[in-house]
Design brief:
Lambda_DNA-bd_dom_sf; Helix-turn-helix domain-containing protein; 6 helices; two-stranded antiparallel sheet; mainly alpha; about 130 residues; globular; 2 strands
Length: about 130
């Protein structure tokens, strides 16, 4: 299926994480990206950014736009069966980071892997 809609919550979460890491306010982030602060407010309320703002936001994040694109007919965006394993997606990204050493990557993979296993266990327990 065609992925033609922006997953606003995923984009907003990525921006929030980057904002916190860089210790920016939403207003500072908007200025750094080159979008209006109202764009951030609209996204916080679940509204999609316009195409120019979307392009600026993903460029600032350094992530492909496809990362935040979803199929509008897929109602459960969180648990699509065709999605690859989280660690399979994250491992190459972690290893490509020039600011992380080999030991840093190994540690992050262990921590994230433990969290993923815990979440899966919790989901399985709830579904019983």
């Amino acid at each position: 299926m065609a992925r033609t809609r922006v997953n606003v919550s995923a984009l907003y979460a990525a921006l929030d994480a980057a904002k916190n890491e860089k210790q920016l306010s939403w207003r500072q982030l908007a200025a750094e990206v080159g979008v209006s602060p109202s764009t951030m407010t609209r996204m916080a309320n679940g509204n999609r950014p316009d195409v120019d703002a979307f392009a600026a936001l993903v460029r600032w994040l350094g992530m492909p736009a496809e990362t935040f694109m979803v199929d509008p007919e897929d109602e459960d965006q969180k648990a699509r069966p065709e999605e690859p394993e989280l660690m399979a997606q994250l491992a190459p990204l972690l290893r490509a980071r020039s600011d992380l050493g080999v030991e840093d990557v190994k540690y992050l993979e262990e921590v994230i892997g433990a969290a993923v296993r815990r979440f899966a266990s919790d989901r399985e327990a709830r579904s019983r």
